[in-house]
Design a protein that fits this description.
The chain is an all-alpha fold. Helix 3 (56-64) packs across helix 4 (66-75). The protein has six helices and no strands. The protein has one domain. The radius of gyration is 19 Å and the shape is elongated. The model has no long low-confidence stretch (mean pLDDT 84). Helix content is 69%, strand content 0%.
Length: 108
């Protein structure tokens, strides 16, 4: 018999929260951030996001940390698409793109 053992997911989001906060600060920083430092934070946050238990606590963290939420969406795109992106914003962008294309196609 083949029994698959799933590793338990973390419920403590302390490290995830610290990394998400750090990423937000780096994103908003007026001082340039080194690419290796940025990649390191993102890499660590991706690992943490892969180990935490999905649910309300993670959702609340992502709601308050847009850069982490975008990273979460990108990492999980194959499963859920842009599941955290606001539908209204996506729809407005699509409408605006359509209007621009329509204007560009009209004769001068």
């Amino acid at each position: 018999m083949n029994a698959t053992q799933s590793t338990p997911r973390k419920t403590d989001l302390t490290v995830t929260h610290v990394l998400a906060e750090l990423l937000e600060r780096m994103e908003r920083s007026a001082v340039p951030v080194g690419p290796e430092q940025y990649r390191s934070v993102v890499r660590h946050l991706v690992n943490e996001l892969g180990e935490v238990e999905p649910g309300k606590a993670l959702g609340a963290l992502l709601d308050t940390h847009p850069a982490a939420a975008e990273l979460y969406e990108n990492v999980n795109y194959q499963y859920a698409g842009l599941c955290r992106s606001a539908l209204d914003a996506s729809l407005a962008a699509e409408r605006q793109a359509k209007e621009v294309l329509d204007r560009a196609m009209r004769p001068a």
